[in-house]
C-alpha cells in the first residue's frame, strides 16, 4: 500500500490542477445527477483499488448502487430510524473500520427525504466529516444540485475540505473547484474541462461566458420542509387518496411514534387540516414531541366530539412548536456532538450527561432559528407565554416523565431584544433539563437509557388575563378520569377527580409549598376529603401563583387578591374561613383589641364554581370522552376562566395516559390481636390499591433528631436516604419520615429527589407537631405520578386522629443498620436515618374498607403473607 501524502482523483490532470487530494479530505461533488457523479467516481475508485486501499460503501438510499465489487465493503444503514440513530450508526461504523479507509456515500438527498429536513442533512455532514478527517480517511459524497438549498450547501462548504461543482454540458465534463483546503494556484478555482485524463482550465472570458450560458441559470428551490407543506396544502383540494397520503407523510414528520399506541391515537383524531395548522407553527423542523402530541390529540378529540358537547366550552389555543431537530442543531452548532455521543454510552450516560447539563445552558442559536424566535414573539406580542418541555418520550403510554423536564413562565415584557433573550434563556434551560440527573436516572429505571430521546419544545400563550399588574387564570389544576386513590368507600372512582387551585396550575402539580389544593371527587363535587372547618382552614390554599408583569412568576397571598377586579365573582372560588374568623373573634374578646385587617379571611373551596356552574359535569364529560378515546385513564392539566357573561371556558393544556395499576385484587385484611406489634394502622389516606406484601426493612427518619439539624445537614439526610435506597434496591423496604417526602423545602419534610426513593416498596409520611411536619396527600401532582408509575405504595399517618395507631418505636428501638449499608455515612446523619430489619413485618390495605395496616405477623391473627 502506498502511503503518499497525495491521493489521486483518478484523473491526472485534475490531480495536477488541485495539487492532489490529501488523506483526511472529505470530497463533496455538487452535481445534477448520479450519472454525472459516476463520471468522477469511477476513476477515483479505480485508482484506489490499484493503490490497494480499503474500500467502504455506506449504503442507505433506494437508488441503484454507486459501486460494486467483491473488494468493496458495503454497509446497509437505515436513515428512517431518525437522525441520531443513523448518525451514531455511521460513527460506529467509521470507528470500527479504523484508519485510512476510503469511503463513498449514497446521495445525501436521500437523507433529506427520510428526515424531511435540509438542516439535518447539513447537521449529519457536520458531525460525520470531522470524524472521517480525524481517522485519516478519504470520502466521496454526491450532493444533488436540485435537492440542495443554498443554506445546506453553505453549511457543507464550511465543513468539508474539498467541494467541486460538477457540470456535464453537451457530453463534456466540467469540474469547478469551489473549495480546496490549504491549496491554491493561479488557475485552481477556474472551471476545468476534464477529458482523457486531462483537466484544462477555462480561463478566457469568452469560453467562461459560453460555459455559463450552456449550464443555464441555477434554480433556487425551497427547502424540503417548505415544499412538503406546499404539497400538503395542495392535497386539501385533491381527492381522498391524495389527502390520505399527505396526512401520512405529515403525521410521520410531526408526530412520530408510528405503530405505537400514542402515535396511532394521534393519527386517528388529528385531521390533515389540524396537522397543517401545527406545521405552520413549527420553528425549525422535526417532531413536536410527546407533550404537544398529547395536548393536540386531546383537544382534537373534544373539538370533534360527535355530540358537539365541548367545543363551545374550550378555550382556543395558538401554540408554537420548536421542532426536535433544533435540539440537535443546537448541539452541533456549539460543537457538543462528541459529548452527546459519549452520553449515549453506559459509562458516560450520567457523567457526560452532567457535562451537557452545564454546557446546554450557555450555547448560541443559529441566526435562522433566532429569526424564527423573533417571529414567534411578534405573534404573541407582550402576552405572557410558557416554554414547556415536549420530549419525544414524554407523556406516552407507560412513561409520563411527570415533572422530570423543566418548563418556564415568561412575563414577555420589555424591549424586543429583552424578550428574545428571555425566550432563548428559557429554551436553553429546557434543553439542559433533558440532561438533569433526575431525568437520566428516570430513563435508566424505565429502561429508556438507549432510546432516541430528543427535546422538542411547546410554547403556549398563558391562559388568563391581566389583573392589576398580574396575569393568571381564575383557576387551574389537574384532572384524573379515574379516581383510584379514594378516601371514602362510597366515592365513585370512575367519575374522576380534580386537584384545583386559584391562579396558575403550578401549585396543583408541585410539592414545594405550604398550601393544599382542593381535592374534588366529580361524582359528588361538594363532598370533600375534609369536612371539619378547622381542617378546611388548615388545609386550604393560602397563596396563589401568578405572573407579575414586572418581575415574572410570583407567589402572592390569596387574601391580597380577594376583592380585586378579576371580572368574575370571587364567591365562585372562595368562602369565608369560618374557623379562622372564629379564632380571631375569640382572640379579640380575650384581649379587647381588634385583630387583623378589614379583609375577611377566606378558604379556596370553589363552592360557587362547583355548585353554581356547569363546570363539574363539563369536566366529568370531558374526562370520560378522553378516557374512552384513549381506551385508558387520562391525566389532564387544565385552566378555568369565567367570561364576562359568566360562561365557563376550559383550557386543556396537557393530556397524558394516567399511569396506574388499578385497585388490584381484593385482599383479606388481617385482624390485630396485639397492638404492640403495629407500626401503623389507619383508615383512608393511602394510595396504591389493595396490597398485602412483606416488608424486610423500615428506613425511618427520626423527626426529633431531624428537627435539630440545619438546612445543609437536612439535605445531607436526603442524600443519605438516597444511598440507602440504592443499597436496598433489591429488598422490600418502607420509608417512614416526618412531613412531605420529596419537598424542596426542608422545613416541610425530607428534600429527597425521586431518584433517591424510587426503589421503595412503600412511602409513609407522618405528623410531628413540634416541627410542624404534616403529610400532604398529593393526589394528581407530579410526585403522585411518580409514585403510581413506579408502583410505590403511599400512606399518610396523622397520629393525632382517634382511628390511627402509630408505634415508631417498633422500628427505631431495633439496631440501626445504616452504617452497615453506607459505610462512609457521617455519624451526625447516621443517627437521624434509622434502618431496622424485620423477619415478619407486612403491609396490607383494602380499598373497600379503606383500611391500611403495617404490623408484624405475630401481632396479627391468621396466616402471614407470602414472603
From TrEMBL:
InterPro entries per UniProt: ATP_grasp_subdomain_1, PPDK_AMP/ATP-bd
Domain Pyruvate phosphate dikinase AMP/ATP-binding: 287-671
Stated name of the protein: PEP/pyruvate-binding domain-containing protein
Lineage: Bacteria, Bacillati, Actinomycetota, Actinomycetes, Propionibacteriales
